[in-house]
Amino acid sequence: MLTSGQLLAERYRLSRRIAVGGMGEVWEAADTRLDRRVAVKVLKPELCGDAEFLHRFRTEARTTASLNHPGIAAVHDYGETASIVDGPKDTAYLVMELVEGDPLAAILAKERRINAERTLEILEQAGNALQAAHERGYVHRDVKPGNIMVTPTPDGRVVVKLTDFGIAKAADAAPVTRSGMVMGTAHYIAPEQALGHEAEPASDVYSLAVVGYECLAGHRPFLSENAVTVAMMHIRDMPPPLPPDVPPHARAVVEATLVKDPAQRYGSGGEFAAAVAAVRAGLPLPAPSGRALAPASMGGPASASNPQMLAVGPPSAPHQTTGTGSFPHTSYAPPRRNRTALWVLVVVLSLALLTLAGFGLAALLDGDTGGQSQPQTSTPAGGNEESGEGGAGGAGQSGDGTSVGNGTEPGNPPMPGEVPADMVVVDGDDYVGQPASEVAERLFRAGLEPVVEAEGGRLPQDPDTCIVTSVEADGRVRVGSEVPVHCVEEEGPSR
C-alpha cells in the first residue's frame, strides 16, 4: 500500500495520489536529488511479476524517453527493483514530467462541448505531437481524451501534451499482448485496427478525429454500452452529422478524416496538423498528399488552381445515420495482416473484461492515465445480455448456432451430455446465408475468434453484404479458438 511521505528508490518522496489506473497508481512526488516535482507511475505489486505487463511498462518508458517533443510528457527515470520503506518491494516505476493541467476527458465531462477554435487548437497540437512519434516509426494506438493533457495559458490559449505510450508499437516490433490482440479503446479505434490489421499512423489520425468529433458534438460518434457493438460501428457505419452550429471549416477537417479507408486519410499526425492549421488560417482544406479525399468527406468543390486543395463550403449533407451505413466499397491494400486476429479482434479486449478479468486484462482496455488524473467517463463494456438461458444445471443455448458450457468447475469432469465450461458447441450450418458481420459478432460473443475471409483469402470489402458460405467448426470448440468463416461478396447498389 502506497501512502504519502513514502520514499521510492531512495529518491522520490510521494506526496499526493493523482490517479489510480488499471496498471497502477500515479503520484505527485518530490525528486529529492534534483529538487523538482515529478509524476511517478507505480505498477501494481501483483503485476510486477507478470512478464507481459512489465513489457508494456518498459515499452512506455523506452518509447516516451526516445521522443523529444514539447507536446509529449517527458520521461525522467525508470526502474524495476525499487524498494519502498514500509511498502512493496521490487516495485516497477516510471518517473515523468508533472503536467499542470487536466485530461481532455475531464474537460469534456465538465463542459460537454468545446468551441470550434479551441478544438482545432487541441487537434493541431496533438497532431504535431503524434508526428514526433510517427517520425520515429511509432504508432500510439490509444489516442483518446484521457491521454491528452490540456493546460490553459495566461493569454487564453492552451498547451497540449500527449501521454500514455504504454501500448505504442514500432512497425517491426513484437506484439505487446497475448495472442497478438489488437490494442486500443473501442470508442476511438480505427476501422483497420478493428478488422485485425496492424495500426499505422493514419490509425492514430482517425482516433484523433474521433476526439475532435466528440469535442464539437458533445458526444462520441458511435454510442453503445457494448464495446463489441462500438467496434462494429467503426467498421460499418458513417458517423451522424455534426451539429448544425459547428463552423464549416471545423466540420470539414473532421469529416474528411473520419473515413474508413486509411489511404483516404491524412497519413501522419503532422499532415493532419497541417490541414488543421490551414483551415484555422482560412485556407482551403488540403487533401491527403498523394491521395484523393473520399467524396462523402468533401465540404465543397476542389479548387481549380490546386486540385489537391479542398475549398471549405457550407456544411455537407447529412451522412447516413448510425446503424444503417456500411463499410465503403473501396479496394485498398491494408497494412501487414495479423493472422491471429484477422477479423474484428479488438472486441476480444471488451470480452476480456468479462471473461478474463482474473488475469488483469482489464487494464489493457481501460488504459492508464499517463501520469495524470482521469475521470471515469468510459462506458462499461457490457455484454452480459448474451449469456445463455440454460441456468446452472445445463448448457445454455444462445440461439445463434452456439451453445455455451454449463459452468462445470475446473478439474471436475462434466456429466455425460454436459458441455465443459471451456467449450462451446457450434453448428456451422446455422450460420450459412447470414451476413459475415453478424456471424463474426455472434462467434465473438460465444468466446471464439472468427477469421473471416472472402474469395481469394482477402478481407471482405463490406462485411454486411458478404454472405457466409461455410464455417469451419462443427461440434465442440474450445473457447478462444480461431474459427475460419468464408463468405461471398454480394453485388450491391452503386454508391
Automatic annotation (TrEMBL):
Its EC number is 2.7.11.1. The keyword Oxidoreductase does not apply. GO terms for biological process: negative regulation of fatty acid biosynthetic process. Residues 318-329 have a biased composition (Polar residues). The chain crosses the membrane at residues 341-365. It catalyses: L-seryl-[protein] + ATP = O-phospho-L-seryl-[protein] + ADP + H(+); L-threonyl-[protein] + ATP = O-phospho-L-threonyl-[protein] + ADP + H(+). Residues 389-404 have a biased composition (Gly residues). It holds the Pfam family Pkinase. GO terms for molecular function: ATP binding; protein serine/threonine kinase activity. Residues 12-279 form the Protein kinase domain. Residues 292-307 have a biased composition (Low complexity). PROSITE patterns: PROTEIN_KINASE_DOM, PROTEIN_KINASE_ST. Residues 292-334, 369-422 are annotated as: Disordered. Keywords: ATP-binding, Kinase, Membrane, Nucleotide-binding, Serine/threonine-protein kinase, Transferase, Transmembrane, Transmembrane helix. It comes from the Bacteria. This is non-specific serine/threonine protein kinase.
